[in-house]
Structures are given as structure tokens and as C-alpha cells.
Recover the amino acids of this structure.
């Protein structure tokens, strides 16, 4: 499994993860890390990790997008369903590490952090928008379509707040807490649908 993880990251995921890492660093440079109010911290987390989800999860659909794929590592065969599910799991874990690192940096910078709340909000944001993009990409068989829908949705949310449970910045504007729970459930459902569709197509 370790060999599989090493090869997957090196061959397929490194550029995606590097782009997400640089995005977080860019966010720190632009918005700062020191002595921020909690409102500023959550604004950073929602803004940046929405985009992280858009990039990281949507990009997975386009890797090895062929009809038959078997990964052979150390004489072991891994079918495409196994590979695809693990790419999603690796990406979720990597996103968790990015979120954890960002919150720790804010804490060290003496900014106001509500750790568990901010952690869950950030994870929900990345998975919610990312799963929507993945679903669109899988249904249309085009990662570009998923990216365009996700980016358009993101921009609409920047301009309009009256989107209820579909709003991407609900924590920034103090929407009810149940919204992020619903979005997290939707994200899990969409990721499950993507896996089912991917398995049928392959």
C-alpha cells in the first residue's frame, strides 16, 4: 500500500497537491496570518478551501480517464475502482493536513481560531464544491465542464448571498450552523455517486 501511495503521489497527484499548497501560501501572503479576528480567519478558510476543493477533487476525474485501467505495483494488480477511491481518500487526507497546518499557523500568529468549528467548516467547503465539480465532470465526461461550473458557482456566491443551504460562505456571514452539516452530507452523497458512475463507465 505504501508503494502504491508513493507512485500515485509522484505520478499523478503531486502537481495537484503542489498547486493547492501554493494557493494556501498565496492566501497567507495576501491576507496575512498575525492577530486576525475570527471573522478574518474564517473568511480565509472559506475562500481558500473552496478553491482548493475545486482544484484538487475535480482534477481527479481527468487522471487516466480511459476505459480500462489496471495499476501493477510490486506484482500486485489494483483495478481502477480501487485506484480512484484511494485517490479521493488521499486527497481528503491531504486537504485535512492543509487545513490543520493553516489553523496552526493562525494560532502561532496569535489570530483568533475556533479550532474544531473552523476545521469542519474548511473541510466541508472543500468537499462540497469539489464534489459538485467532480459530479459535473463525470456526468459530462469533461473536467473542464466541472471546473467551469465550479468557478461560476463560486463567483455567483461572491455576489449573491440568498442561496440558502447552497451558499459557499455561510460561516462568514453567520448563517445557521446546520447548513454546513447539510453541505457535508451532500458532498459525501455526490462523491459516492461519482464513484458509482466512474465504476460503471470503466
Amino acid at each position: 500500500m505504501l508503494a502504491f501511495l508513493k507512485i500515485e503521489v509522484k505520478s499523478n497527484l503531486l502537481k495537484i497537491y503542489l498547486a493547492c499548497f501554493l494557493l494556501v501560501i498565496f492566501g497567507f501572503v495576501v491576507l496575512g496570518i498575525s492577530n486576525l479576528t475570527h471573522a478574518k480567519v474564517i473568511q480565509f478558510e472559506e475562500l481558500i478551501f473552496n478553491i482548493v476543493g475545486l482544484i484538487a477533487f475535480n482534477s481527479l476525474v481527468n487522471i487516466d480517464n480511459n476505459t480500462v485501467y489496471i495499476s501493477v505495483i510490486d506484482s500486485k494488480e489494483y483495478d481502477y475502482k480501487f485506484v480512484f477511491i484511494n485517490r479521493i481518500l488521499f486527497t481528503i487526507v491531504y486537504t485535512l493536513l492543509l487545513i490543520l497546518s493553516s489553523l496552526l499557523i493562525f494560532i502561532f500568529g496569535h489570530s483568533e481560531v475556533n479550532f474544531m468549528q473552523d476545521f469542519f467548516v474548511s473541510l466541508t467547503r472543500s468537499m462540497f464544491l469539489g464534489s459538485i465539480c467532480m459530479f459535473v465532470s463525470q456526468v459530462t465526461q469533461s473536467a473542464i465542464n466541472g471546473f467551469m461550473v465550479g468557478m461560476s458557482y463560486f463567483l455567483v456566491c461572491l455576489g449573491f448571498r440568498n442561496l440558502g443551504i447552497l451558499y459557499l460562505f455561510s460561516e462568514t456571514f453567520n448563517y445557521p450552523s446546520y447548513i454546513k452539516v447539510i453541505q457535508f452530507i451532500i458532498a459525501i452523497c455526490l462523491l459516492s455517486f461519482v464513484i458509482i458512475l466512474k465504476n460503471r463507465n470503466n
User: Anything to note?
Assistant: Confidence is low (pLDDT under 50) at residues 66-70.
